[in-house]
Amino acid sequence: MPDSQALVAVPAVAMEALAIVPFHKKSKHHEIVWRQTRRPFFVLEIEALVQAVEKLGTESGKHRTCVDLKAKDKWKSLVRTARISPQKRREEPVPQQLLDRVLAAYAFWSQVQAQAQVKVAV
C-alpha cells in the first residue's frame, strides 16, 4: 500500500468475503412489547404536587385525564410512603418535611370530604 494516506494500514479485502456475511432476518413473531421505563418523580415535581393538593384538594371533578390519574396515583403513593417508617422506604428519598406536609394535607382534605358527605346525607 505505498499510495495509501491512511494512518493505519488496512489490508485489501475481496468483495466475495463481504458477500457471505449472514443477514439477520426479521422474526416471524410480531411481538410488540410496550414497556415504559419507570422514571421517579423529582423532588420539585413532588413539591408542586403537594402545593396543588394543599390549595385545591384531591378531587379533580369529573375530568379524568391521564395526567390527573398519574397525579392521583402519585399522591396515593406519597401518602402511603409518608405513613411508613423511613427504614422501610424503598423509593427515592423524599425529604421528611415534605412528607409531613403530605400527611397534613391528607388529614385536612379527608376531614373536608367527610364533612361534605355528612351534609349531603342530611
pLDDT < 50 stretches: none
CATH class of the domain at 43-121: Mainly Alpha
CATH architecture of the domain at 43-121: Orthogonal Bundle
Mean pLDDT: 77
Radius of gyration: 29 Å
Instruction: Kindly estimate the percentage of residues that lie in beta strands according to DSSP.
Output: under 5%
Q: Main sheet, how many strands, which sense, barrel?
A: none
User: What is the third-level CATH name, the topology of the domain at 43-121?
Assistant: Serum Albumin, Chain A, Domain 1
Query: N-to-C terminal Cα separation, in Å?
Result: 98 Å
Structural class: mainly alpha
Molecular shape: elongated
Number of helices: 4
Total beta strands: 0
Helix content estimate: 40-55%
Q: What is the N-to-C succession of helices and strands?
A: HHHH
InterPro entries: TRP_plant
Structural notes for this entry:
The protein is mainly alpha-helical and 122 residues long. It has a domain of 79 residues: Serum Albumin, Chain A, Domain 1, CATH 1.10.246.220. Helix 2 runs parallel beside helix 4 and helix 3 crosses helix 4. The longest helix has 26 residues. It is elongated and about 90 Å long. The mean pLDDT is 77.
Keywords:
122 residues; mainly alpha; Serum Albumin, Chain A, Domain 1; 4 helices; elongated
Give the helices and strands, then pairings.
Layout: H1 15-19, H2 43-56, H3 66-83, H4 96-121
Helix pairs in contact: 2-4, 3-4
Gist of the model:
The chain has helices at residues 15-19, 43-56, 66-83, 96-121. It is an all-alpha fold.
